[in-house]
Amino acid sequence: MKAGAIGPRWALVTAVLLLIAMPVSPGVHAATQSGTCFSDSSTSGLLSGRTIIVDPGHGGSDPGAVNTATDPDLVEKTLNLEISTILKDLLVADGARVCLTRTADETLSNADRYTFANAEGGDALVSIHLNSVSNADVDYTMTMWGKRSKDLALAQAVLTKLVSGLATFPDGEDSPIDSGRVAQFASGVLLKSNMPAIIVEAVFMSNTQEASYLADSTQGRETQIAQAVRDGLVAFFQQQGGSDGGGGKGNGKGGGKP
Length: 258
Ligand SMILES: [Zn+2]
Description:
Layout: H1 2-21, E1 36-38, E2 51-56, E3 66-67, E4 74-75, H2 76-93, E5 97-100, H3 110-119, E6 124-131, E7 141-145, H4 148-165, E8 180-184, H5 188-191, E9 197-204, H6 208-214, H7 221-241
Parallel strand pairs: 2-5, 2-6, 6-9, 7-8
Antiparallel strand pairs: 1-5, 3-4, 7-9
Helix pairs in contact: 2-7, 4-7
The structure holds zinc ion (ZN).
Zinc ion (ZN) is lined by residues 57-58, 64, 76, 129.
């Protein structure tokens, strides 16, 4: 019976070791298959004819920021996917073809993300993130660009809409956001994608007020973020398209804008 006393423990240890060992071989680079594109051929609108890549930041083994002061913990990868899914629906309703780099909790490398974006021929790429810092009072909105000539106009167009769209919470409370920042960031996702590409650090999920709204998606903060990014994309394409509105570069037929 001595053996019996330690037997279950060894069985447990073996099972744990197997669980640790198994995910290493499959999985890690199955990634470009995870991307999925969405469109609605019965819908036309301001973004008809555009392909937009929406990239939910982090995922799988990379949680991104975690706010452990909330109950339950807020995890960035999960919020990024929620916001990206709402954004996808808004953009599809505007007539766009929208490609999500991931639709589930999956690990993606930067190469997976830009390879997918380039293969799908995106007209713009938006990578969705939430910011975090140790001081729980800090909150502002930010967009980041990689190559000035390719990305900066998109970063500025989206930032303008984030600042105005996030200044109040959905219930009308003043939010801590009263300004925005635009910054350069040498991310492979931005530098190696062939289209205007930005990272959105929408709000600080480490901020106490933001966290309390983000913790309950029915309060609508995620929707506000998605709506602001959508508005920024529309403004960007309107700038790019000039007076015909929908053509953009290289599409002489116009994008189907009424
Ligand atoms: Zn992030």
